[in-house]
Amino acid sequence: MTARHVPHDALRRFIASAFVSQGLPAADAGQVAQLMADADLQGSDGHGVIRLPQYIKRIRAGGINKHPDIRVVHERAAMAVVHGDNGMGHLVVSKAVDIAIEKARSAGVAWVGTRYSNHAGPASLYARKPLQHDMLGLYFAVGNANHLPPWGGAEMLLSTNPIAAGIPGGDEPPVVLDMATTVAAYGKVKAKAKRGEPMPEGWMIDRQGRPLLDPTRAGEGFLLPIGEHKGYGLALIVGLLAGTLGGAAMGRDVIDFNADHVSVTNTGQAILVIDLAAFGDPARFKAQVDKLVRDIRGSERLPGVERIWLPGEQSHDKRQRYARDGIPVSAVLLDELNTLAADLGIAPLTPLAPLNPEVTA
To answer: Which helix (H) or strand (E) holds 201?
Structure first.
């Protein structure tokens, strides 16, 4: 599938314009747009601009509060619960992370959960944020639609329920893990459908237990958990921590935001922030991380393996490459976005002139 490349800043401005056209305050639109464009910049294309038409549809249907009162409703020295007032999830989670960072400065560690939030994009964006403050972040979330049954069951009572961790290094890039508790995040299924590509075997099965490879038929089956019963157990625990603990939806209470654009989702997320200084010298910790990273990268490889990757390294490489060359956007998605732009009355998204027409992505 041929892709066109769009500068990061142009993508950010396009997304912001779309939200402003629908009545989001400019500052809020800019913050959400920055996070969505950053998702695409690091290669998390299932959670970036591909979600814009869905967000706009939900805003137009009244399913998102454009002027939320995002506030703390429970608080102690090292914890808080943030009520998102059904605002854009990116705004709600960003506030939760900021509160956790401030609390960790004095308490050493802080846990902040959200309720009445919404879909907020890739987990790693929020796990990475504490890195700027010599802190590490652990992020948990309840997915915005149930795509996973309990192990051995057929009723989808759980979601992809992602986990992310951001661990700072010194000279090396940070170690950043971002994973669903299913074999693939549902955003990847949506991205495959948008590009007209089949899913690999092992992502989904149908209700007879047969492999499901066509992403346009995803509604006929469900995602598989990582590690079989272990992934199911992990999805359950993450949901209890990110959802139930903070008073957010879990199980049958989860609203499928792919099908329902009006109902309040009451999405839950949680961020745990740890201040490195509470455990000693941050520089020493980061030097030890660097050493371990180099030991792993330089360790003996199996035949045919060119490189051992650390979590987050490939996203780091994409971030640098896409910042230089532009973010790849499929022709199908570009057409959809520019049809949306015409409907919203905003300027279209203009890609860079192709350096090589034969290059595809």
So the answer is: none
pTM over 0.90: yes
Contact 35, 358 (CB under 8 A): no
Give per-residue pLDDT as tens, 101-131.
999 999 999 999 999 999 999 999 999 999 9
Tokens of 246: 């903070």
CA distances from 192 to 44, 136, 203, 330 (A): 13, 32, 12, 11
Which two tokens mark 237? Answer: 């625990």
How far apart (Å, rounded) are the C-alpha atoms in residues 98 and 94? 6
- Which domain, by its residues, includes 42? 1-60+326-361
CATH number, position 87: 3.30.1370.60
What is the spatial distance between Cα 20 and Cα 36, in angstroms, rounded to a whole number? Answer: 15
DSSP label of 250 = -
| CB-count burial class (<10 Å; 0-12, 13-18, 19+) for 165 | buried
Tokens of 272: 């745990």
Best CA proximity match to 89, nearest among 114, 120, 61, 65 = 120
Domain presence at residue 190: no
- What does 225-266 look like in DSSP terms, one character per residue? BTTTHHHHHHHHHHHIIIIITTT---GGG---TTT-SSS---
